[in-house]
Amino acid sequence: MRKRLVFGVAAIVVAIGAGFAIKAGKGAAAMPASAAMAANSPDAAASEVPLDFTVTEASKPLMLALPQIVEFSGALVAPNTAMVRAKATGTLLTLDVQEGQRVKAGDVLGRIDVADLQSHVAERAANLAAVQTTMDQAKRTHESNIGLANDKFISPIALDNSRSQLDSAKAQVAAAQAALDSAKIALRDASLIAPINGIVSKRYVVAGEKVTAEQQVVTIVDLHLLELAGTVGTQDVARLSPGMAVSLKIEGIDKPVEGKLARIAPAAEAGTRSIGVAVQLQNPKETMRAGQYAVAQVQIGDATPRLTVPLGAISSASGQEYVWTVEGGKLLRRTVITGRRDAAHGRAEVLEGLTADVPVLGARFDNLREGAKARVVTVATAATPKPLAPVGAPAATATR
């Protein structure tokens, strides 16, 4: 009886274990061996859908001349700028111009109290009259002595003395005349006169102030001619020469402005490898102002055809530049060495790593894999990936 009970319990345990095993077998998702072999077979690789790139996305490099751009920047300045200074010490009675006011050469800008200068002029004039009288007396005396000497009434020595006195009187008259002229010039210069046509850019004093000789009063700027003073590296200056055309991008002005290279400094600035250059530009309508920031570009011609690709074709990783090519029906990643770049036309020179007969992807795509199947088609298909969006725009998905 006891043995029957043991056998019964054992049978129940075996039955329960078998039930669990059957349930676990039903819930598992095991892959058959035949399916795993099929997934890794050459037929699976052959069934890979190739990526289709249009002829605008994958094109062969072009042989083009790439003009080089020498760029420098700086602030615009007005070379025709005049500083009006007081020529005499005195009180500024009036200053009749304001900042921004247009003036012409010869206009009176203001007046300085010139009472002292007027008294100096009167004093010098009186001194001139006195010495003129002395000279006239010496002249009459000498003429009289000539007659007396001819009649032997005076000695030749006395005649020479009278001649010396006349010469001395003439010299005194000349000195007095020069002193009077100097006083008149000082009186004239005491008037503040505009030396050039232009616009008053700054006033340094106001009416009622005491000014001294050579003190700044106003600045006048002629805006019809402006200059950009910048610097270029010693490696670029050899390609520049005075008279070359220059394109300037000026802040606040939409269109580029044309100018010309006027001057090149003969030596580099102390402690640098930079050489000063100056660009002149005409400003007949005075639309530009001194102080505006500008970027100047000088285009250097290139007579040598160069192997070029679109700028968007070049990517970089780990300090190396590379491009994607379509060769033998596959995508290949080629490391390249680049040279000149022309941002205006969107081309870059390839010095090494590429030949002219290999199609190059002209834009950046995501999820590219070296060795993946690819081909160049004339019309976009469902297998044509989307290029990445330009910098600053939302990126597009570039998967197949």
Walk me through the structure.
This protein has 400 residues and is α+β, with helices and mostly antiparallel strands. It has 3 domains: 51-66 and 304-377, conserved putative lor/sdh protein from methanococcus maripaludis s2 fold (Beta Barrel), CATH 2.40.420; 71-80 and 221-300, Elongation Factor Tu (Ef-tu), domain 3; 83-219, OB fold (Dihydrolipoamide Acetyltransferase, E2P) (Beta Barrel). 28% of the residues lie in helices and 34% in strands. It is built from 6 helices and 24 strands. Strand 20 and strand 21 (330-342) form a beta hairpin. It is elongated, with a radius of gyration of 48 Å. It starts with a helix and ends in a 23-residue tail after the last strand. Mean pLDDT is 82; it is low at 1-42 and 391-400.
CATH topology (level 3) name of the largest domain = OB fold (Dihydrolipoamide Acetyltransferase, E2P)
- Kindly estimate the percentage of residues that lie in beta strands according to DSSP: 25-35%
Tally of individual helices:
6
**Secondary structure: number of strands:** 24
What is the CATH homology-level superfamily of the largest domain?
Answer: RNA polymerase II/Efflux pump adaptor protein, barrel-sandwich hybrid domain
C-alpha-based Rg, rounded: 48 Å
Helix content: 25-40%
Question: What is the H/E string?
Answer: HHHEEEEEEEEHHEEEEEHEEEEEEEEEEE
Tertiary shape: elongated
